[in-house]
Amino acid sequence: MKLQQLNYLIAIADNNLSITKAAEKLYTSQPGISKQLRLLESELETKIFERNGKQLVGITELGDEILNRSRKIVHEINHIKNITSVANQSDSGNFSIATTQTQAQYVLPKVFANFHKRYPNLTIDLQQGTSDQILTQLQKQEVDFAIASGNIDLGANIVKIPCFQWDRTILFPHEHPLGDLRKIELEDLAKYPIVTYPFIGSAKNSSLTSAFRKEKLEPNIVFTARDADVIKTYVRNGFGIGIIASMAFSPQQDRDLLGYSTKDILPRCTTWLAFNKNIFLKKYMKDFINYFAPHITSEQLSQYIHQDYTSSLQLANSIEEREREKPLPMHQMWHI
């Protein structure tokens, strides 16, 4: 078994089972990849891919396990190769972070302003997407860090650090009937169309919809967008009332809209930072965590990194216990 064969195997899986695309990605020939795949399957005495003639149409159950272990092997080998260069070039290189539009626009600018002063030679690659897209990038090790919010199981191979909490804000025009109410309840929101962020996975797992259903109400969500400014635009155009992160609403810049905090009617959201537990945390990565969540001590970070969780469920329970014992700070406490 050769490392090259494992790289070919991963490339085929990541390119929709297309050997041609895998060859293009690796700058090699299609016959060469096909030959190495046959040699690997022959050595292992098993079929990794399901075939229809010469075309690959699926991954066998055993092949899926081989693929997962191959990813770990290749990752560890790359990690070993990088140790020396990391030690010698700790202040330069490429730092990739996947995050949501809200975090990228309203949270990270001030963090990066300070971080960039400390590491001016570091190239920062900031990629935006939905929480599901961010998780996929993280699991495929396409980015170093992921920053997002929401109740989502990242799996046992991911270190997930809760960083801060935030409330949602309800948006509506000045002339909207909600503006006449002294106190807005979920029952009032359920009467109107709602424009808000996309859900992670499915609507039934959302803390927003769960809060409504707990009161035996059904929210009328008519439009979703990942960009808070897009949500504001559609609220202004009469699509419905908006529900966005509180940090994305500015009474000065959004003077034509009224904002109402949901702190008394909807659960708070938690923003987390995550990375693969096998990643070598460079000094600038640890410093970034400190800039992003300064309340997390070096000792706490070490506990997150080195604690051995037997399952993703145990990981989630451990985080919830920490949050109950010591509530996370609100976003405004240090970023704004």
Automatic annotation (TrEMBL):
Residues 1-59 form the HTH lysR-type domain. Keywords: DNA-binding, Transcription, Transcription regulation. It comes from the Bacteria. The keyword Transcription regulation applies. Belongs to the LysR transcriptional regulatory family. This is HTH-type transcriptional regulator CysB. It comes from Kangiella marina.
